[in-house]
Amino acid sequence: MNKFKALLLAAPLLLLTSLANATTPVPVFATDDEQNTMQVFNFASPSVVYVTNETLVRDRWTLRLHTVPKGAGSGFIWDDLGHVVTNFHVIEGARKVTITLQDRSEWPAQLVGSAPEKDLAVLKIDAPPELLKPLEAGTSNNLAVGRKVLAIGNPFGLDTTLTTGVVSALGREIQAANNRTIRNVIQTDAAINPGNSGGPLLDSSGRLIGVNTAIYSPSGASVGIGFAIPVDTVKKIVPELIAHGRLVRPVLGIESAPDQWASQYGYEGVAVLRTAPGMPAERAGLRGIYRTRRGGWQLGDVIVEVDSQPVNTYDDLMNVLENHRAGDEVSLGVVRDGKRRQTSITLAAPE
């Protein structure tokens, strides 16, 4: 009888417990932001590749040449033809470059073209189309500080590593391997370490917005200051590298003197060393350095402005010309013998 009473008393409690369990939702630990991060990673990571670089060395004892690993970095698939984009410094001096896809298959790569001044290079592999998943290129002209970004790469040889952060600043400048200035660079606090170079910087929709290229760090490891070449720059350069193997920019037809030559005379600009016969600069009457009657050398024309943009160095001049094409007419501000004048010049295609 006592057992029967105990069962009658326990039954309502068991019923209430069952109802409570039935109405209590299963906890979801992933936030919307975490879900987005995981989705972007799963979507984009098959497009990211591992780039290994081997170079030739001579054995000091046998004098024989053999290949040894020189470095490694990241890259990403540009199109279904097998073009892969990476940093120039990742493959610089390479004798042999190998691309490892996400399925661990390895493919020998050929260099299609490079732009050291922009730290970009294009490689090509003959992998079947089903293994090639190109990244969708977004835009970088609408980025704002605080936007979420994701970086995927192979830091320290650890393949397919994801880091996240935000756009920390825009319009930064860094130096390329040949000491040219890369302008309008994206700064991010997403951790970028050695091996991340050449990998993609993505927005929250999984679109390419930059190519990770450098970090600022006294120790050589990420301290939250990384840089990426904006995708709008990449979209202009990569097709040129595929078509021509190099950047094709218009020319004035001058050989420039070292930057310090103009500064020795108190000018900030590009001193013309000599003009090329038949080229625009000669036709426009520009004059290079010449000998005086006494046998000394006299500074000729110094280019100080192009289309109202100040030109202080050769690097400035090259950056201005990158925005033009052969056949464009530009206005040059030129100083000769202390007097400034304006002249128009039609840019030519490089020989």
UniProtKB/TrEMBL annotation:
<dbReference type="InterPro" id="IPR001940">
    <property type="entry name" value="Peptidase_S1C"/>
</dbReference>
<dbReference type="InterPro" id="IPR001478">
    <property type="entry name" value="PDZ"/>
</dbReference>
<dbReference type="InterPro" id="IPR036034">
    <property type="entry name" value="PDZ_sf"/>
</dbReference>
<dbReference type="GO" id="GO:0006508">
    <property type="term" value="P:proteolysis"/>
</dbReference>
<dbReference type="GO" id="GO:0004252">
    <property type="term" value="F:serine-type endopeptidase activity"/>
</dbReference>
<dbReference type="InterPro" id="IPR051201">
    <property type="entry name" value="Chloro_Bact_Ser_Proteases"/>
</dbReference>
<keyword id="KW-0378">Hydrolase</keyword>
<keyword id="KW-0645">Protease</keyword>
<comment type="similarity">
    <text>Belongs to the peptidase S1C family.</text>
</comment>
<feature type="signal peptide">
    <location>
        <begin position="1"/>
        <end position="22"/>
    </location>
</feature>
<dbReference type="Pfam" id="PF13180">
    <property type="entry name" value="PDZ_2"/>
</dbReference>
<keyword id="KW-0720">Serine protease</keyword>
<dbReference type="InterPro" id="IPR043504">
    <property type="entry name" value="Peptidase_S1_PA_chymotrypsin"/>
</dbReference>
<dbReference type="Pfam" id="PF13365">
    <property type="entry name" value="Trypsin_2"/>
</dbReference>
<protein>
    <submittedName>
        <fullName>Serine protease, S1-C subfamily, contains C-terminal PDZ domain</fullName>
    </submittedName>
</protein>
<dbReference type="InterPro" id="IPR009003">
    <property type="entry name" value="Peptidase_S1_PA"/>
</dbReference>
<keyword id="KW-0732">Signal</keyword>
<feature type="domain" description="PDZ">
    <location>
        <begin position="241"/>
        <end position="338"/>
    </location>
</feature>
